[in-house]
Amino acid sequence: MLCFCYDLICSCFSKLHGKAQMSGEKREHLYKILVIGELGTGKTSIIKRYVHQFFSQHYRATIGVDFALKVLNWDPATIIRLQLWDIAGQERFGNMTRVYYKEAVGAFIVFDVTRASTFDAVVKWKQDLDSKVQMADGSPIPCVLLANKCDQQKEGMVNNPSKMDEYCKEKGFTGWFETSAKENVNIEEAARALVSKILLNDKLLHGNDTKDPTKIALDNNGKAGGEATSGKSCAC
Asked: Using CA atoms in the order 36, 40, 43, 47, what is the torsion angle rounded to 10 degrees?
């Protein structure tokens, strides 16, 4: 039953991801985004803030994977749906993450600026990500590093922005942002940076190909801005 629950969500995403309709004026991109990192770094808080503009000090640890949907009016002709997958920190680098990562086109790796040990684990999360999911041309998917809880006292390299820039370039990150889910700092900006990179990659890979499976045409009655839904899948 648990596996069926997870498989059903994956099946629904795959059907939407592969569907293409050319009637109508607006076009839609559906992108699966992973949010990964050590336990307690604030992944769920970041998603809640981004999708629902909500913050709470009290969240239970994610078990398996949660997901939420954020709908963006990117421009007058483009609607973007982001399916954000909140991967439990305790999943670590197990075999199940390969299933969770399937069809993702971008990722956030989150660490807690108040705990240097969570930054030390970032490289392992990045290596695990790159080994389990790639773009169509075999290159790594875009990944943005989030230095979360920046409203609190910071530890380690995050206190030196130039070294952080070098680190991200060396490790293959698209970029990095200091974020705070509590104070709503840089979360929108980080998401926009990641989506911009995904769109650029999409254009480079598909050009103006109208058969691009990540694009779905909407009719003039299609709803967009401000819509947000959430759900939860089950770990096997």
From this structure: 160
